[in-house]
Amino acid sequence: MGKEKAFEDYEPESGQGLRLFYLPDDVHVVTAWDSDVLVIDTRTWSVKQVLTEEGVLQPLLAMSGDRKSLAAVDWVEGDVHMWRWSDKGEFEEVMTGRGLASAIGISNAVVSHGGERLASVDADGRISLLDIRTGRVVLTSVVQEPGLENLVFSRDARTLAHAFTSGSRSGLELWDARNGEYLGQWALETSTPPTDAEEPALRLAPGSGSDVLTLDSGGTLLRRSLDIADWRAKLCRIVDDPLSQADHDRYLSDLTVDAPCRP
């Protein structure tokens, strides 16, 4: 059994809840503490690295799925600091930027799996997309529907998804993460929540590969793919190839597609 230790005087940044991430070595963690961003050695509970100085940011932290890219977003001003975990066993700053929509504060931020892009959403539901390599920021033209504020990138960082629940409707909203173009909604059938449940909400989390996980208030957990090629492969396994004339006229009459399931 491991010994319990405490990091004295620990106080996570107020208002944003605890955000603490293990780094690739499974020894160090990073967290926001009293406006600082600290890397802590869990063997000794000593601070190994201070990424921002006190008072520079009101930091909202987000970590990439590979645990190598860290974003600290000033949830008041919309400024961004990005670091990448190096072979030296420490963070190196790769960019700083600004321009994220931050009306009444940024409520959530996420980084794509490989650290290519960052997305944030402010209190007005406006989503900002930052290309970490170029520093370019685009704002989506469509404000997200009511729902929890969690956003999820597809594994290839090309698509951004948000789960919404509005009245009896639930589903995913999708954006092109490269240019902010709104791709539309994917309506989902969800189970009936218990009568004593709080306001129904659809929760969203990253999955493996191109998948996302959805959990509805009825307790149903499902894996769904955001990869168009994956959907094409699944559909081509269950339809005749070539399509009959009737099916072609029904599904593909407005497209120039001769043999959709052939290489």
Walk me through what this model shows:
Helices cover 7% and strands 40% of the residues. The radius of gyration is 21 Å and the shape is elongated. The strands form five sheets. The chain has a four-stranded antiparallel beta sheet, with no helix packed on it.
Lay out the secondary structure.
Elements: E1 20-22, E2 28-33, E3 36-41, E4 46-52, E5 59-63, E6 69-74, E7 80-85, E8 91-97, E9 106-111, E10 117-122, E11 127-131, E12 137-139, E13 151-153, E14 159-166, E15 169-176, E16 182-187, E17 203-206, E18 211-215, E19 221-225, H1 228-238, H2 245-251
Antiparallel strand pairs: 1-2, 2-3, 3-4, 5-6, 6-7, 7-8, 9-10, 10-11, 11-12, 13-14, 14-15, 15-16, 17-18, 18-19
